[in-house]
Amino acid sequence: MDLRKSERRLALVRYLAENPFATDEQLAERFHVSVATIRLDRAGLYIPELRERIRQVAADRLDAVRALEQQEVVGDLVELKLNRYAVSVLRVRPSHVFARTGIVRGHFLFAQVNSLATAVMDADVAVTAKSQLRFYRPVKLGETLHARIDLIANRSGVAKCRVLTESHGEVVLNGFIWVVADPSVLHAFSDDGVM
Asked: What domain count does the chain have?
């Protein structure tokens, strides 16, 4: 896909309109140019860096987080519809991985989806009651994790959330998290998710 500069820039604008969370490295690979060339193209087109693109998308798609502070969500919160769904993006950094293997520590994967499950609740307080998650493959340094939570049931004060985390279009984690808006009822929570 070798393109002239003007064609590449037009293709870049179109691609980022559909994939606003693409990193400079992913764009360089897609367009067969260097990361520096992508950064020059972005600057010439007044396209902000990834973090700012995430903020712009999030500003259009966020309800107000109630159950925790927005900065307590692990990753960048990009979509939130209370009592419906939430989406975040987490770029894996050196502090997230084991030094020897470069593999992400599991608690970061859990923290991303757990904080989303809490954020999706339209309540002043929400806590995790139970989780049932499956990890499909190790995640490495430099990957970008796209997590989505969908609230699929809410019975007797217990919300059941479907969890999905992907990287490079592959599922790395999925399952369910149950959240309660009243921490005092945790003792009554049963294994089947009903009080």
From this structure: 2
Whose tokens are 């999905």? That residue is 164
* Cβ neighbour number for residue 118 with a 10 Å cutoff: 26
Domain check: are 64 and 142 in the same one? yes
Q: Kindly give the residue spans of alpha helices, DSSP state H, lying in the chain.
A: 5-18, 24-31, 35-44, 50-61, 106-119
Measured CA to CA, the distance from residue 154 to residue 60 in angstroms comes to: 26
Alpha carbons 143 and 131: distance in angstroms, whole number: 24
Give the integer Cα–Cα distance in Å for 114 and 31: 35
43 with 37: CB under 8 angstroms?
Answer: no
**Quick one: DSSP state of residue 124?**
S
Residue 52 lies in a domain: no
Q: Which pLDDT tens digit goes with each residue over 119-166?
A: 888 888 888 999 999 999 999 999 999 999 999 998 877 899 999 999
Domain extent at residue 36: 5-47
Q: Is residue 52's pLDDT more than 90?
A: no
